[in-house]
Amino acid sequence: MPADNSPQTLKWRWSYSRSNSLASCPTAFRFGLTPRNRPRARINLSVLVGVAVHQAIAKEIDKWARGELVSDTAAQMSARNIIQSIWKDRWNSIIEIANGFEEEESKLDFFQRVAKNRLKRFFTMIWPQFSHMRHELHEEPRKFQLDGIRIAVKVDLACWTPSDGLAIVDWKTGGRDTGLRERVQLAVYALWAHKQMGLSLDRILPMIVRLKSGEIVRYQVVDADLEYVKEIIDSDIRIVSEYSQSEFPVSPEYNKCMSCLYHHKCSAGMNEVDLSPGR
Ligand code: SF4
């Protein structure tokens, strides 16, 4: 008989990233529910620049929220220091390198250049379109309930437009359009603003900002988007509840396992990486 894997029993909150983790590998999802499984702060190599750029922007938005001037030079310096410090400790702080992937030393200059370019573009093309708005929050976790299910969100920036709409912004460091996934992510944010802040959908203005190109993609979330998100949440809860507590299926694939935070705890993942051609 399946164990009781309800969110209440396993004490988990649904989030967009957890939903992606469940779809990618149920075992990784299960590991992630137990804090002691999580090694000290580690990030994926693919998000190194993104993490630095996000943190640098967040620091400047902190200043803006306090009524101080923002500085693109200060942001570039912050990102540079963050990348430098993570890279220096890369055998512990970058998941793929901790899992045995060898990255060239010279990549550091490339990462620094990309971060600098993204931030230049942000402060010249993007920020002037938001700097006149009124700050609500940025990079802070928020929780809300939907039909008894606890949901967690963390938006990059939410701010009020002059016409009293709430712009909810997600910075994407890469330039790739992830289509439906982006829409679902923004619909989850809209669901939070709708349920938690009581805003009607026409006052919620979710958007994706691509820092690589400077493009801003605006979405109008409609009821059908919220229904779709609810279906995903219900489906995730149903899937998890059907697993036996100790037997969440593994889904080993080289790229996934090499970039998995729980690789060191997962024999299937270790085999997958060790047995792959070229290893
Ligand atoms: S190492 Fe691979 S199989 Fe194991 S939990 Fe991670 S993604 Fe899943």
Strand content: 5-15%
Shape: flat
Q: Which small-molecule species are bound to the chains here?
A: iron/sulfur cluster
CATH topology heading of the domain at 134-234: Lambda Exonuclease, Chain A
H/E series, N to C? HHHHHHHHEEEEEHEEHHH
Main CATH class of the domain at 134-234: Alpha Beta
Annotated CATH architecture of the domain at 134-234: Alpha-Beta Complex
Mean pLDDT: 90
What class do helices, strands and sheet pairing give? alpha+beta
Count of β-strands: 7
Helix content: 40-55%
Number of continuous helical runs = 12
Main sheet: strand order: 1-4-5-6-7
Global Rg: 20 Å
Instruction: List unreliable stretches of 5+ residues.
Output: none
Give the oligomeric state.
Answer: single chain
Q: Characterize the main sheet.
A: 5 strands, mixed
End-to-end Cα distance, whole Å, is: 40 Å
Descriptive report:
The structure is a single chain. By secondary structure, the chain is of the alpha+beta class. Among the domains are: about 45-130, no CATH class; about 135-235, Lambda Exonuclease, Chain A, CATH 3.90.320. It has helices spanning about 5-10, 15-25, 25-30, 50-65, 70-90, 90-95, 95-100, 105-125, 180-195, 225-240, 255-260, 265-275; strands at about 135, 140-145, 150-155, 155-160, 165-170, 205-210, 215-220. The chain has a 5-stranded mixed sheet, sandwiched between helices. Strands 2-3 form a two-stranded antiparallel sheet. A hairpin with a 2-residue loop joins strand 2 (about 140-145) and strand 3 (about 150-155). The protein is flat and about 50 Å long. The model has no long low-confidence stretch (mean pLDDT about 90). Bound molecules: iron/sulfur cluster.
